[in-house]
Amino acid sequence: MYDGGVYRSEELFEIIEDVGGVVLQKNRSSQMLTVIMSIPEEDKEAVSRVCVDIGGVVKDVPLAGTEIAVVGPTLGRHHMPHPICDIAEELRRYGSITVVMGMARGRGKATAQISRTEREIVDEYDAAIFVMGNFKSCVEAKADLVRDIHVPVVLVTGPQPEGIDDCCEAIVSGVGRKASRMRTPPERAKLEEIADTLEAVLRDKKRSLEEDPLFVHPSEVKQILENYEPIDMCLRPAPMVLHLDGLRIKIPYSEHREYLENVMVYGRRLGEVADISPSKIDDSSVIVRIKTRSQVRDEDLKAGR
C-alpha cells in the first residue's frame, strides 16, 4: 500500500504497469492518496524506491483485496461502538475494505436475534468479525448469532467463552465493552492480534482457492470493467471492491445486469463464468462470484460444449 500525496503519483502508476502489477484500490482525499497494489515480489524494491522518491511510504497489507464485515449486536452507545470502530480501522490498515454493521434485534441476552436476510448480507463479505460483550454467559447465549453463516467468522469478546468453539473459526478474548478508544500499547497489541487472527483464517480460504483456482482473477475482471461509464462515473467510495472470489460493483443490478452478464472475459461471457446477483442490502450494488475452473468445466460438459 502506498500512502502519500497526489503529486507525481503518475510515476507510481507507470511503474506498476511496467512491472505487470495491478491497482487493487485507489482512494483520494484532497491532496492525499492511498493506493493498494499487487506487484511481483522481485519488483517490490523498485516500486518502493519510487514511492519514497515521490514523498510517500509503502508497506505490506496482507488483507488487500478483501471486504470484511465488523458486526456488533447493536451500534448503540451501550454496545461498545469504540472497539468496533477501532477494529474496523485496524483492518483498513491491513489493506481490507471494512463495513460496520449492527443487528436489528441484538440488544440483550434474551432478545438477541439475527434474521435470514442479515445472515445473507454477512455472507456477501469475505469474512466477518462479531464483537460481543463483557459477560461470559451473555456471550455464550448469543453464540446463535454466528451460527449458519457460511463465511469465516472471528468472534471477539471480553471473557473467554466456553462450549462455542464450533460456531466460528477463531475466538479472540480481552476486548470488552468500553467507552473510550483503544489507544494504550496493550490495546493496540490486541487490535493487531485480531487482525493477525483474521489473516490466518483467510489464509486457509486462499489455500482452498489455490487448490481449485478461479476461472479468472477478480482483479482482471475489475480491469475490464473500469472503463464502463456508469462505474467510472460512480461517486460512491470505491465503486468496485475486490473479494477473494469475486467483487462488489456499486451500480444498480436491475439496470446493468444484461451488460455485466455479456462482458467478454477470455472469450467467455462473464455470466457463464460467474454468478451475478443483486446485493441483499438493496438494489444499488451487484455481487459477482467467479466460478472455479472445475465448475466451469463441469458446466461445459453438461451443456455439451
* N to C succession of SSEs: EHEEHEEHEHEHEEHHHEEHEEHEEH
Total helical segments? 11
Backbone CA Rg: 20 Å
Structural class comes to alpha/beta
> What is the share of helical residues?
25-40%
User: Low-confidence spans: pLDDT under 50, at least 5 residues?
Assistant: none
Shape: globular
Span between N and C termini?
42 Å
The count of strands amounts to 15
CATH class of the largest domain: Alpha Beta
CATH topology of the largest domain: Rossmann fold
Task: Order the strands across the largest sheet as they lie in space.
Answer: 6-5-7-8-9
CATH superfamily of the largest domain: Flavodoxin domain
Strand content: 15-25%
Give an overview in words.
The protein has 305 residues and is of the alpha/beta class. The chain folds into three domains: 57 residues; 143 residues, Rossmann fold; 86 residues. Helices cover 36% and strands 23% of the residues. It has eleven helices and 15 strands. Strand 10 and strand 11 form a beta hairpin. Helix 1 runs antiparallel to helix 2 and helix 3 packs across helix 6. The N and C termini lie far apart (42 Å). The model has no long low-confidence stretch (mean pLDDT 89).
